[in-house]
């Protein structure tokens, strides 16, 4: 999972908590009532994909991370 991480679009998130219930180590509800990624490595890629697929408003997606090259 080093090449991608989950991200939540706060403009789309409705705060339903589905992702938090499926992956509580990776997502949490913020004070703003929206979901936030707290630990991108808290669950397996497959488990996080399940949360992405279960999001009723498609607010969660994968973000490609750019590895630092020297």
Walk me through the topology:
Blueprint: E1 4-8, H1 18-22, E2 27-29, E3 35-37, H2 45-54, E4 60-64
Explain how this protein is built.
This protein has helices at residues 18-22, 45-54; strands at 4-8, 27-29, 35-37, 60-64. By secondary structure, the chain is α+β, with helices and mostly antiparallel strands. The protein has a single domain, classed as Alpha-Beta Plaits, CATH 3.30.70. The strands form 2 sheets. It has a two-stranded antiparallel ribbon. It has a two-stranded antiparallel sheet with strand order 2-3. Strand 2 (27-29) and strand 3 (35-37) form a beta hairpin. The chain starts with a strand and ends in a 6-residue tail after the last strand.
Order of helices and strands: EHEEHE
Mean of the pLDDT scores?
Answer: 92
Helix/strand class: alpha+beta
In the CATH hierarchy, the third-tier topology is known as Alpha-Beta Plaits
Helix content: 10-25%
Spatial arrangement of strands, main beta sheet:
1-4
Query: How many domain regions?
Result: 1
- Give me the Rg, rounded: 12 Å
Distance between the termini: 21 Å
Shape-level CATH architecture = 2-Layer Sandwich
Number of helices: 2
| CATH class (first level) name | Alpha Beta
Quick recap of the structure?
With 70 residues, this protein is of the alpha+beta class. Helix content is 21%, strand content 23%.
């Amino acid at each position: 999972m080093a090449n991608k991480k989950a991200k939540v679009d706060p403009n789309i998130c409705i705060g339903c908590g589905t992702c938090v219930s499926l992956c509580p180590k990776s997502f949490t509800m913020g004070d703003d009532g929206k979901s936030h990624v707290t630990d991108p490595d808290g669950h397996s890629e497959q488990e996080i994909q399940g949360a992405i697929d279960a999001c009723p408003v498609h607010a969660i997606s994968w973000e490609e991370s750019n590895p630092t090259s020297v």
